């Protein structure tokens, strides 16, 4: 097996793990919401992150991965930003209609494209932009119902979009800049994310639900589903960092909309949720957009790889014409051509206790 084939299999595995774990945690958390009335999204997310950190710490003790320390300021800032983005997303849902919340999630992709273009110099071809438009159009048809606007809700939506985009872009750039794996980054940032949400969670959930998480009656079935949700979240958090590190923040958002379509289909087929031709048409359009995005991304990656191999002999030839001894010159470097994202108080939202 070649190195390229192994990398492709690793990426496919990461994408598959992300889809399976995310759909599983939605099913589990849906039971917590509808059956047991557990509406404390932010607090549960903090427990998810706490369990994730403990699991990774055990893995480190067993030498399943190597700990790599890097700039502490970057780690703290990244962890706090992730925690804040989750809080803003939950507040956005609390102060807006479900339809406006879905529009907020759709806006994350164009915002990410804009930020990466302006600040990272990353270019997106016309074909990629067209595929993303088809995808967003389809998901919008399938999920957006009403659009009730208010000033505070709009401000919170804007803050949620910006913080989520920056956090996901940082997930990708930090792994490349400091040469750390997704596991190493997740292990170091988890404590700061968990502490942020552990402190803010009870207040935020109490404000949105008018209930106290500490006075909730915890029966054995509820505790069982909470533990199961926390265990699944380890896979969700790990696969999120893995996918963004191996692909890009935009690809991760595209994958997120695939999960949304799968969840809608699952609810219709197994849970007999209300469904219409409006939803079916939207999902169909969205799937076409996803297929186009995947096909174009693969083709463009292959084209870049071919161009880099064509340029390689030219660089070698130029180097061979230089003097054999040159104390002032530095060796030529061949640069890499490639450039360096809870709806418990309202049904139908798409945060779904995402850790």
TrEMBL record:
* UniProt xrefs under SUPFAM superfamilies: Multidrug resistance efflux transporter EmrE (SSF103481)
Membrane topology listed for this record: Multi-pass membrane protein
Superkingdom of origin organism: Eukaryota
Localization recorded for this chain is: Membrane
Q: Name one Pfam family in it.
A: TPT
Which InterPro entries would you find in this protein's record?
EmrE-like (IPR037185), Sugar_P_trans_dom (IPR004853), TPT_transporter (IPR050186)
**Domain Sugar phosphate transporter spans what residues?**
22-294
Transmembrane among keywords: yes
User: Quick one: where is this thing mainly located?
Assistant: membrane
What keywords tag this UniProt record? Membrane, Transmembrane, Transmembrane helix
* Chain spans, region Disordered: 309-355
One cellular component term (GO) for this entry is: membrane
Spans through the membrane: 12-32, 38-58, 70-91, 103-121, 128-145, 151-173, 185-204, 216-238, 250-271, 277-296
Name of the protein in question: Sugar phosphate transporter domain-containing protein
* Organism expressing this protein natively: Ceratopteris richardii
